[in-house]
Amino acid sequence: MIKSLLNSIQNLITLSPEEIGVVTALFKEKSYKKGDFFLEEGRICKYAGFVAKGLFRYYTNHDGEEKTYAFSQENDFVCNYESFLSQKPSSKIIQALEDCDVLIISYADLQTFYTNIREGERFGRMVIEAVFLQLLKDINSFYTETPELRYDRFLKNHADLQQRISQYHIASFVGVKPQSLSRIRKRFFIKP
């Protein structure tokens, strides 16, 4: 599991053998069963995680209506950075859609990572920049794209997840009810 994390980090920065030891000591293995919460609404996000196996869904709860806005799968990081960085309660929820194996790091240990890894702060900046860009794309998509375009984008960006995510959660991500998603899918797949 640690090898995937080290490969992911080393795709962005170089780690010395000593730094590999530091990273290995800072990240802890944790498993989540399908349905478990990585983060519950109203709780502080205490960890950032690297998904070695499994799939997480990010969503908000508006008066009982769940609105899915992102997914994290293998080789992605999982975290609500808004809560993690501010150490304030989260309005977002992160739930395992499958059994998941994750390498987690606490906020305090992440500060140790930044201090003891020569290019640690650079790595953190690159990860946050990627999160920021994805957030901008998601916001733009939410306000400017039709449900059909959002479904098309889902298929292009998450083609490998289509069989792993229920139609209910895909419909929530697209911003429609499951019945509407069925109609979109029908129109989508019988296009000339």
SSE blueprint and pairings:
Elements: H1 2-10, H2 17-26, E1 28-32, E2 37-39, E3 47-53, E4 56-62, E5 65-72, E6 77-78, H3 81-86, E7 93-96, E8 100-106, H4 107-116, H5 120-144, H6 147-157, H7 167-174, H8 178-189
Antiparallel strand pairs: 1-8, 2-7, 3-6, 3-8, 4-5, 4-7
Helix pairs in contact: 2-4, 6-7
Domain Cyclic nucleotide-binding: 11-113
Protein name: Crp/Fnr family transcriptional regulator
InterPro entries: cNMP-bd_dom, cNMP-bd_dom_sf, RmlC-like_jellyroll
Proportion of residues in helical segments? 40-55%
Strand order of the largest sheet: 1-8-3-6
Distance between the termini: 45 Å
- Average predicted local confidence, pLDDT: 92
Pfam families: cNMP_binding
Protein name: Crp/Fnr family transcriptional regulator
Task: Give an overview of the whole structure.
This protein has 192 residues and is an alpha+beta fold. 47% of the residues lie in helices and 22% in strands. The protein has helices at residues 2-10, 17-26, 81-86, 107-116, 120-144, 147-157, 167-174, 178-189, and strands at 28-32, 37-39, 47-53, 56-62, 65-72, 77-78, 93-96, 100-106. The strands form two sheets. Strands 1-8-3-6 form a four-stranded antiparallel beta sheet. A hairpin with a 2-residue loop joins β4 (56-62) and β5. α2 runs antiparallel to α4. It is elongated and about 55 Å long. 27% of the residues are buried.
